[in-house]
Write a structure and sequence with these properties.
5-stranded parallel β-sheet, globular, alpha/beta, Rossmann fold, about 150 residues, binds S-adenosylmethionine, 5 helices
Length: about 150
């Protein structure tokens, strides 16, 4: 991502209609599969500037945010998030079976992800057996805009 995009994302992600719509869709999917519990361990892989963690993911358990960009993690720190790791989705710095839920929103199609297969292998490794992976990615090329 272009460096300036992180600041723009930070500014709009708690109020822009697209983010709010995605939050509603994501919550309804999570509620379908997860009962409320505070002890669940969650990894938000490619967490960006942290809005998902600070607005709703924390309701589902203890969330660790991971992103390879220091600019993204700076945004997370500004939101007072402290469980953070700077790393790539292709080399996740956690031991096997560490998480009950992994979320990854609009990350695997990024140019900086060298191999989505490797990323998925890493997600599988750090997810406990029976854990859940929630991936969000664009479905159709015709939805791509200048921004993408
Ligand atoms: C479109 S943003 C989405 C951010 C956030 N998940 C959201 O929904 O707002 C893509 C994010 O993926 C991160 N990213 C790109 N390549 C990555 C990689 N190889 N490993 C980890 N994060 C990566 C970028 O730094 C950026 O924060």
């Amino acid at each position: 991502m272009e460096p300036g995009e992180y600041e723009r994302m930070f500014q709009v992600e708690t109020r822009h209609w697209w983010y709010l719509g995605m939050q509603t869709i994501t919550r309804s999917l999570l509620n379908r599969f997860l009962a409320p519990t505070a002890s669940r361990k969650i990894l938000d892989a490619g967490c960006g500037t942290g809005a998902a963690m600070s607005t709703y993911l924390a309701e589902y358990g203890n969330v660790t945010g991971m992103d390879f960009s220091p600019l993204a993690l700076k945004g997370c720190q500004t939101r007072n998030l402290s469980w953070l790791a700077q790393a790539s989705v292709t080399a996740v710095p956690f031991s096997a079976e560490s998480f009950d839920l992994i979320t990854s929103f609009d990350v695997l199609y990024e140019r900086a992800v060298a191999s989505d297969t490797l990323a998925l292998t890493e997600f599988f490794r750090v997810l406990r057996p029976g854990g859940l992976l929630l991936l969000r990615l664009p479905a159709y090329n015709w939805l791509r805009g200048q921004h993408d």
